[in-house]
Amino acid sequence: MNLNDDRRSTFAGNKDHHCTVKTLDPTRLISVYVGNLPLSIDDAELFQIFSNFNGIEDLYINKYTRGFENTFGFVRFSTIEEAERSIKELNGWPVNGRRLRVQKSKEALRMKTSKDNTSN
Fold first, then answer.
1. Fewest beta carbons within 10 Å, which of 49, 57, 64, 90?
2. What's the Cα-to-Cα distance from 87 to each of 33, 75, 105, 119, rounded to whole Å?
3. Cβ count near 55 (within 10 Å)
4. Closest by CA position to 21, among listed 9, 33, 34, 38
5. Tens digits of per-residue pLDDT, 31-53?
């Protein structure tokens, strides 16, 4: 689900939930990895899990599991503060008998490392 434009969005399965989003530079977004998702989860349910956090720009669920029963996804935030707060509060959160694994994505970690190396 891509929310990265200026429009009022309605999330699938929840016609009462609207979100106004702004266009941002995607290179400035902070990606959060969400692992151990239930196989049945959809975009609207993942958004609902993260709905207490501001600055959600888009999300993605990978359901191609290659025989494994582990669905994962990514949620991208416009601020590092909300991304880090979501990690702190949702890592280990129970969803349909599974405990979410929420952490900075490898992409976000690579970006931080490259910024640290250029500032020296």
1. 64
2. 9, 11, 11, 26
3. 20
4. 9
5. 999 999 998 899 999 999 999 99
